[in-house]
Each structure stands twice: as structure tokens, then as C-alpha cells.
């Protein structure tokens, strides 16, 4: 990877500006087993950061801790400079998109979004307008009264993103939301997500194991090691916005980054003897 086209920056992010969220030596355990080991990371206001790591390295576990769904085993978490080691829930509105959509099957699409807004303290008088607006934005407005099981996988994932955004979150945490979708739907969803981010600029942490997805979406990509996850490297993504999948610069960047990431993950084949 050439330093003329790519900037390599410290894991804490580029200099300047207070972080929205800051992790210092964050460690996560399941029982006695360490699955995330001493992560340093900063998410700046309005920034989109991708956490790129191999399957099973601990990405979801880290996101759970940040949201406050699981406890931190070590290290510290700060929100706008304030100690927040027990996670973001209860401090700010968190828009969390799970890998599987997690819609309640016995509630309609609209009711699923209502439940999330109620939990987030959104006044009931605003529910109707927000449901219309966010389902419309994600192009699934006609399914408001439908049962989730009547929707395709892509439509369900659109609803789950609408649900996360309808609380008008202060921060968005996304856990491989497009990994179960076909290529065409995944592309459309990524395009949609960049458009939404460009409009709203909500700080976003996006977990993925797809290099191309990380480069297409993010301002910075944090490369994690095999589990227990630690930060190997952080890369700036020098692509202009709005981004296009067809941009030749994206393909070039992907080729460079694949080589770089495979080297970091130590998966490259050695020279033939
Ligand atoms: N509730 C749990 N109890 C015990 N171990 C767990 C639990 N959840 C996850 N693990 C283990 O922790 C490790 C990290 O899992 P995690 O789901 O965080 O990884 P990941 O990087 O998100 O994986 P993937 O990319 O496949 O979704 C794995 O070895 C997994 O088996």
C-alpha cells in the first residue's frame, strides 16, 4: 500500500477534534475467555468508522459492550470526554442494527418501530410521522401494516435500519447488517446507507468482514486481528463522497487493501519454493 495514496493513522484517529466516543484498552470476556484485548479507538463526531475483522474475532462482542448490552472486563470508555464505561445506553440514543433483523414476528412492521421509539422515549405524538418518514426513506413504506415474515430478507433489513434511525439516534452501531443479503440488494443498501449518512452525519461504527464494504462506506477502517481482537492498523479512506460502486478508484483501493489486510491477517501464501 503506497503512502502517497493512503494515510496510515494511529488507532486513536487523526489529530484534532474531540472524540465522540473513545475506547482505551477495552477488553471483553465471555466467562474467563478474553475475546477482545485492549482496544484503543476513537469515533469522531459525524464520522463513519468500519471495524474490519475476520469471522469470530470479537466484533459483535465489542459492539455489545459499547452499546451497554454486556459489561466491559477491562479498560475505559468515554463519551464526549465523560466516563461511560458501562456503555452508551441510557446516556444517548443508540441506533443498533443487528446482523439478523430481530424484528418481533408477532408485531407488524409499524408496531416494531413504535416499540423501539417507546423504549427510546420518543413522544407518542411523533410516532406516526416518524414511521412514515423512515419507512419511506428506506423504501419499504408500503409494508407498514405487514407482518415481518411476509417480507423478503432485504426488506426486513431495511425495516430494521428504519427502526434504528426512527429513534433519531445520536450514534449508530451496525453489526454486519448486509451480510445475509444477495449482491444486488447489498449494493443498494450500502448506497442507501451512505446517502443517509451524508445527510444526517450521525457518528457510526459499522462492523464487517468485507473489505470492499468497509472501503465503500467508511471514513476510516480499523483492522482487527484474529481473536482475541486487537487493533492492527487504522486506515484513512481517501475516496470522495458521494461514493459509487463503479468508481475505479474504489477498485484500486480494494486491490491495495486486500493485499495489506491479508498480510496483517497473515493469510498470504509464501513464495513458491
Ligand atoms: N454469549 C457468548 N458466550 C460465550 N462465548 C461467546 C458468546 N458470544 C460470542 N462468543 C464467542 O466469542 C468469540 C467472538 O464472537 P463474536 O460474535 O464477538 O465475533 P465476531 O467477530 O462478531 O464474529 P462474526 O464475524 O462471525 O459475526 C467467538 O469465539 C464466540 O464463539
UniProtKB/TrEMBL annotation:
> Record keywords: Nucleotide-binding included?
yes
- GO molecular function per UniProt: ATP binding
Superkingdom, taxonomy of origin? Bacteria
What is this protein's name?
A: ABC transporter ATP-binding protein
Q: Transport: is it a keyword of this entry?
A: yes
Keyword terms, alphabetized: ATP-binding, Nucleotide-binding, Transport
- Residue ranges annotated for the ABC transporter domain, each copy included: 21-251
